[in-house]
UniProtKB/TrEMBL annotation:
Upper classification of the organism: Bacteria, Pseudomonadati, Pseudomonadota, Alphaproteobacteria, Hyphomicrobiales
Domain CheW-like: 10-149
Name of the protein: CheW-like domain-containing protein
Biological process annotations from GO: chemotaxis; signal transduction
Signal peptide (UniProt feature, chain positions): none
Native source organism of the sequence: Ciceribacter selenitireducens ATCC BAA-1503
SUPFAM superfamilies: CheW-like (SSF50341)
Length: 165
């Protein structure tokens, strides 16, 4: 696993919900967390690109992270959040159902992804166990690496293997 842990062996993560499942990412790439604001749709954008928002004079795309992962898309509501992140030199907003916590957890709580979990987990660094819950640790750099925004599931259906988490 290529996780950057602190010298003391801890990981700083932000935990959030997608389709009633727990996920997290490293806080290092997060610029800010915003409440839901309506987006301006972009014609012919990939399914997971909801549109763009103006972030203090900078236009950034907003991605439905659940759709990007091949899951059913997120229904935006007042409880939804946009996680503004810098990934591979690109600033974007990630729509999630809601942010549950910002945590510092021991790196030893990160477990490897089961080898038989299939291709659906190719963007998962591992599984964290925290207070009796399982949290999928996403690698945003991998998720958005090859081919830009249109990489990944899309399509809006439940991707193979996600039901297992």
């Amino acid at each position: 696993m290529n996780i950057n842990a602190h010298i003391d062996g801890s990981l700083e993560i932000i935990a959030f919900r997608l389709n009633d499942q727990s996920f997290c990412v490293k806080t290092r790439s997060i610029r800010e967390i915003r409440g839901w604001v309506p987006v301006t749709p972009m014609p012919h954008a990939p399914y997971e690109v909801l549109g763009v928002i103006n972030l203090r004079g900078m236009v950034i795309p907003v991605i439905d992270l659940a759709a990007k992962l091949g899951m059913a898309g997120t229904e935006a509501s007042e409880r939804s959040a946009i996680i503004v992140t810098d990934v591979n030199g690109m600033t974007m907003g990630l729509l999630v159902e809601g942010v549950s916590d910002i945590l510092t957890v021991p790196a030893t709580s990160l477990q490897p992804v089961p080898s038989n979990a299939g291709q659906a987990t190719q963007f998962v660094e591992g599984i964290l166990t925290h207070q009796d819950q399982m949290i999928c640790f996403l690698n945003l750099e991998e998720l958005f690496s090859a081919g830009g925004l249109s990489v990944g599931g899309g399509g809006g259906g439940a991707g193979p293997g996600w039901e297992e988490f």
